[in-house]
Amino acid sequence: MTLELGNLTPELAAIQVEVEQYARDYGLDFFPTIFELIDADQLNAIAARGGFPTRYPHWRFGMEYESLSKGYHYGLQKIYEMVINNDPCYAYLMRCNGLVDQKMVMAHVYGHCDFFKCNQWFSKTSRKMMDEMANHGSRIRRYMDEVGVAEVEDFIDACLSIEDLIDVHSQFIKRSDTKSKYEFANQDDEGKKSRSDRLPAKNYMDRFINPRETTSNAADESDKEPPQRRVPEHPERDVMLFLLEHAPLNGWQADVLSIIRDEAYYFAPQAQTKIMNEGWASYWHSTIMINQGLTGADIVNYCDHHSGTMASSPTQLNPYKVGIELFRDIEDRWNRGAFGREYDECDDHQKRKTWDTGAGLGREKIFEVRRIHNDLTFIDEFLTLDFVREHKFFRFGYNQHSEVYEIESREFPKVKQQLLNSLTNRGQPIISVVDGNHKNRGELYLEHTYSGVELQIDYARDTLENLYRLWNRPVHLETTLEDAKIVLSFDGSDHELEHGGLYDLADDSEDAA
Amino acid sequence: MEIERDQRRFKQIVRGRIRENLRKYITHGEMIGRKGKEAVSIPVPKLDVPRFRFGKNGSGGVGQGDGEEGDAVGKPGDGPDGSGGAGSEPGSGHLMEVEVSLEELAAMLGDELELPRIEPKGTANVVAEKSKYNSVRQTGPESLKHFKRTYLSALRRQISTGNYRPDDPKIVPIKRDKKYRSWNDIPKPQVNATVIYLMDVSGSMTDDQKEIVRTEAFWIDTWLASQYKGVEKRYIIHDAVAKEVDEHTFYHTRESGGTRISSAYQVCADLIEKSFPVADWNIYIFQFSDGDNWGDDNRQAFELLGEKLLPASNIFCYGQVESPYGSGDFIDALHQEYGENEKLVTSEIPDKDGIYKSIKKFLGKGK
Q: Which of A34, A329, A364, B6 could be bridged to A61 by S-S, CB 3.0 to 4.6 A?
């Protein structure tokens, strides 16, 4: 696909200059932003590839494309905007949108660009991803030429099966020393020892030159069996990394796995900040459009579009809506000084409502919030009882008898806990490698940290099959089913389900957040 | 574009998976969900990438809006994530529903069963008129008024009669200015086919047997629809007497009377005579029965079959579904009477697994 850079019409280019200036004046800080004007079909094609025009070939992009274009042609869905976290930031505008829509989308896009650049969770993502994705594409295409499309594709499928099994925090902390094939640590250690305690000697003469008695203590220790060390030493959340380091992969396989892993780490912050990112962008399109962007003639179109974006359904929170309202709530509270101990301890509802110290810190606060938080901490820190009441949040659950979802509770702690649960680990089960040498037979043992919700067993089994393709030895997953520990295993031909966990991991459960 | 390559690859994989499992789909018609006019949805195993994910047991979440505790807010299918089968069977894998057009499905069926394409008879005798809006007339309903042409001819008239004033360019069309969109009939040759299903609904045919018939009929319809433009389906049920019914009644009627196959043949022969002139129509007759017939009826039945039905039809297929009650004699009687007959195909369907072979036998003649 060929795209000209920044192919805007003069009219749209003028709007871009205008909107960009508004954004800058409000203090938004973004990478240079390039808008591309494209047709709906191209937009669907790019959206199907996660926003990138050039990526490795894979059938699931075709599947996604088919679903997007069907939805578009039936008039069920329409993508208005698409922004790529990259430097420069790329954003796409759909050619058939009206001018007001385009202006609103641009304002929205500058919100996203600022978020990408300034939010800390994005700070470790590659800002040259456009190029890297293209590079990944050409590497994988080359492997396909070398070993065959089907084989590479199968392998990609297996890798994608575990692409959620990464450790998002590892980008910020050093959990373990990076291991390199080229560090020969043990030999160095021996070298040092021989300098201090021993006289230099060739191997076969060592016994005679350095007799046992003279090197008593040190030698005794090193002769002892080293204490049994588990691999990994601590449960490893980054299952992909563990496989990269320990699975029997050949050159191209290791490269493909590392590509999938890199891309997973690139996309992870977007999953971690869906509410904030969309909320922030919506906050800014609304602020810019209302205050500067709109003429009287546009107002009806703008309102129609904006309210469409904010619509919520009873069984699904709309991240745009929750995000923008929460940012507005924070801004309002910090403007009124409605925070801190005195405010928190005040029981008088009326007093709280009209609380105003004239602090005027709202704008400053929301800029700070967008810098340091992700959805989980955002909700944890700023979702208040008043907010939940005002916006009529409730918790719903499945009723086995009537076979429908029902409102379970409007109690604040329950609602908040449910929301936090759904955001923990990007809504994915927490799974770690606990043993790479299970039963001393090189089998892989994973553990699911149970948090009250069971895994879907048929999917888990198929995932184990894919994991087996990477590990090449039997694989096991310990999880909880009907309140009892079970171990699912796949040995290359058969599935098994055993009751009772094999490890007591109480002392290793530091990851169980 | 690269995406088209991915899309092709995806379709190729879907087709591959369906083909691998086609035998299962053929014999277990109930697996095929939502049957539409042009497409069906088929549960395809292991299509999406499996991941460790939460099951439905603890599912729930946070919503927004009015309502009391205990109020219903939605059904499980409403969510964005409707995929995923029960999958209690180990190794069966998770499923994903995929939409496949009937045309594509028929092509796969054809490949799988190595079915020859049908050579229609009575080529293009029936002419269907297709209307196409491609002309303009002076008269017509207001709703079809052609504004631009009407405006143009009014403008032309006003200029030529000197009624047009550039400083006040008002155009008022009168009756003879008005132009209306109109259509022409485009004759299109069309080859038509009809499928007539006959079924014994006497007490000895149980629901299991009917399910087999229904599954088999679905595949027959799918195949014939891919070979002809416009296939008409007719249904006749019988016990001791026969009548023509609609599709739903066909599968849901159970009578307790005796069995006279000749009654159904008579209704069928009348139907053909009345509605489907043999010269214009490709006629397919499929009869399903458990093989039970009143002894003295066979003679009358064969008379009708030999004189009316066989000469009229492209092919006459008799499927004998094994039932715990039926005698299963009729198929032998047929063989005795006709031996090898070009137009008569018989097949015994002992159980669901027999459907596959039976379809192959019925449609394998290419007629």
A: B6
Determine, yes or no, domain membership for B218.
Answer: yes
**What per-residue string of b and e applies to A395-423 under the rule 16 or more CB within 10 Å gives b?**
bbbbeeeeeebbbbebebeebbebbbbbb
Instruction: List the one residue out of A111, A159, A129, A125 whose CA is nearest residue A50.
Output: A129
Q: Which residue has the tokens 């550039």?
A: B166
Question: Would you say residue A88 has pLDDT above 70?
Answer: yes
Residues of A with Cβ-Cβ distance to B78 under 8 angstroms: 315, 405
How far does B317 lie from chain A, in Å, by closest CA? Answer: 40
B chain contacts of residue A317, beta-carbon cutoff 8 Å: 61-64
CB contact under 8 A, B63 and A396: yes
In a domain? residue A174: no
Nearest to B51 among A59, A161, A405 (CB): A161
State the Cα–Cα distance between residues A498 and A458, nearest whole angstrom: 15
pLDDT higher than 60, residue A187: no
Residue A173: φ, ψ to 5°: -120, 155
C-alpha A165: how far from chain center:
10
Closest CA to B355 of B207, B215, B210: B215
pLDDT at A188: 47
Q: Let me know the angle formed at the C-alpha of A166 by B76 and A186, rounded to the nearest 5 degrees.
A: 155
Asked if the structure places residue A77 within a domain, the reply is yes
CA distance B85 to chain A (A): 8
Go through A102-124 and write b for each residue having 16 or more CB atoms within 10 A of its CB, e for each that does not.
Answer: bbbbbbbbbbbbbbbbbbebbee
Neighbours of A34 (CB within 10 A): 18
User: Does any CB of chain B come closer than 8 Å to the CB of residue A403?
Assistant: yes
Range of the domain at A491: 428-511
Per-residue pLDDT at A92:
93
Q: Give the total number of structural domains in chain A.
A: 3
Tell me whether residue B347 is in a domain: yes
pLDDT for res A13: 93
Nearest to A242 by CA among A475, A441, A508, A57: A475
Three-state SS at A434: strand
Cα torsion A218, A222, A227, A231: sign: positive
pLDDT digit string, tens, across residues B60-108: 788 888 888 888 887 765 443 333 333 233 334 567 778 888 888 888 8
Q: Which of A315, A428, A429 sits opposite B61 (nearest CB)?
A: A315
| Same-domain pairing of B201 and B245 | yes
User: How wide is the angle at C-alpha A303 spanned by C-alphas A298 and A306, nearest 5°?
Assistant: 120
Tokens of A188: 């160095």
Same domain, B172 and B228: no
Tell whether A187 is covered by a domain. no
* A409 φ, ψ (degrees, to nearest 5): -160, 150
* A253 part of a folded domain: no
Q: What are phi and psi of A83, to 5 degrees?
A: -125, 140
Chosen domain end from B172, B188, B204 = B188
Which tokens is A20 given? Answer: 């960009």
Taking the CA atoms of A459, A462, A468 and A469 in sequence, report the sign of the dihedral they define. negative
- Sheet containing strand B33-35, strands side by side: B33-35, B39-45, B95-101
pLDDT confidence of residue A219 = 46
Choose the final residue of a domain: B188, B220, B242: B188
Q: Is there a contact between B9 and A57 if contact means CB atoms under 8 Å apart?
A: yes
Check whether residue B162 and residue B245 sit in a common domain: no
Whether B3 sits inside 8 A of A398 (CB atoms) is no
